[in-house]
Please model this.
Amino acid sequence: MKNTLLNVDQLEVSYGPVKAVQNISFQVNEGELVTIIGANGAGKTSTLNAIMGLTDISAGKVEFNGNDLAKSSVEAKPKLGIVMSPEGRRVFADLTVKENLIAGGITLPKAKCDVRLDEMVKRFPILGERVNQEAGTLSGGEQQMLAIARALMIGPKFLILDEPSLGLAPKIVTQVFELISELHQEGVTILLVEQNVKKSLAVADRAYVMELGHIVREGRAADLSQDKKIHEAYLGAA
Model:
């Protein structure tokens, strides 16, 4: 049986009187690609922010590899092996591609950072071509590749991707999902939040469905992709 890397137990997240996440529980096992699907406003990003310590937890527990994440700072998360590529990419626009990647590997010794930098520009050839270009001048697809490459700089055990295809052209969306599949095949454990339900279920092992802060369904991604209710709710227009 595979080791459970992420265990979310009865998590609640509130913004004042509004409960964005209500008593949800889920797990991600080592080597899995798990997706959380749901409409905009379902509480998916709030869940990810709570995991990473960007939002306060109102109740419940989040454990990563046996560590209580509530007791570790945002800066300490990468040292545990968990990183997130956030919604909206959020690259450092005024820094070059190279400087963005170095920022992603800031916790590494310089020699290791240099090695990982070389690996990233080989993995993402377009970034190699733009290595001295300011990130803010890249296209949306190039910025998304940079955001993922920056997250990969430390060689994480666990990669969280929040809406990686948001706002991208269909051709680039396909490239992003091909990359996600490659990373999964290489053994990276991935938690994917994505509004493109069809593509998410196509690459994931398991899926959770969120509605209005609750997890309402869970199961094998392949099974959920064939489920009539899921199909009517999310796949008709996908």
User: Anything to note?
Assistant: The mean pLDDT is 92. The chain has one domain: 4-235.
